[in-house]
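Task: sequence design from structure.
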């Protein structure tokens, strides 16, 4: 069953800070041209050399030139370029504890799911697509089925991220799901589920139970066997190894 909005979103989020998983509106993103497409480079008008411009003496006028038409393209390792920017809804993927301490925050663009095939949508709603994070509809905030594309995460200066742009905030259990998805996508798991094998004989606890009900389910696991469902939360389990 797809997750319900009440299982995902905080009904009364604290507006004094930003958190991992927050969905914000109106954030500017810059998009690179796809591989194989020529960059459009901006060269300064006469009177200012490119190197002078790169070092801070910015001219008032630039002339667009195709990358392929310039013999000295990228000769200094840097260029002014013509790019497309768009203000759109995004989801914060940087850890909460790092948001206040970093100048650049990683965000993922949010897209409507109406263009997906029925099969892809079913996989999205089942949280089966590793690079997509499902955002169910909420009548007042998320008006269409949507998803954050984690494969398109990019840095945004934190000065662009304001609490008054908040659309929804995820509940702790759903944030834990996001953390597991990010860990799996990047290659290091946050928790284990019944599709995983036990990597080391040890005691494991269910993080999902902790986040959803403040309870702990602890089991001894043997290396090489598949992780079982949680006695309390079943297939939603996130087994985490306890320190030896």
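Answer:
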């Amino acid at each position: 069953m797809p997750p319900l909005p009440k299982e995902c979103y905080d009904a009364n989020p604290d507006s004094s800070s930003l958190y991992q998983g927050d969905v914000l509106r109106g954030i500017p993103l810059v998009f690179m041209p796809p591989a194989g497409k020529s960059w459009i480079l901006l060269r300064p008008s006469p009177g200012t050399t490119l190197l002078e411009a790169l070092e801070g003496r910015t001219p008032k006028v630039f002339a667009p030139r195709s990358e392929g038409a310039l013999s000295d393209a990228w000769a200094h390792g840097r260029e002014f370029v013509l790019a497309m920017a768009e203000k759109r809804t995004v989801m914060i993927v940087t850890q909460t504890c790092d948001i206040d301490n970093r100048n650049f925050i990683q965000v993922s663009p949010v897209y409507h799911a109406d263009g997906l095939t029925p099969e892809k949508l079913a996989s999205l709603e089942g949280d089966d697509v590793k690079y997509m994070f499902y955002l169910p509809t909420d009548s007042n905030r998320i008006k269409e089925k949507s998803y954050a594309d984690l494969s398109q995460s990019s840095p945004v200066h934190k000065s662009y991220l304001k609490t008054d742009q908040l659309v929804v905030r995820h509940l702790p259990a759903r944030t834990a799901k996001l953390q597991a998805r990010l860990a799996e996508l990047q290659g290091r798991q946050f928790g284990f589920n019944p599709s995983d094998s036990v990597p080391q004989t040890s005691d494991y606890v269910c993080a999902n139970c902790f986040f959803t009900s403040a309870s702990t389910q602890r089991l001894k696991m043997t290396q090489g066997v598949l992780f079982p469902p949680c006695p309390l939360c079943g297939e939603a389990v996130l087994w985490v190894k306890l320190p030896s």
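Residues 172-186 form the longest helix (15 residues).
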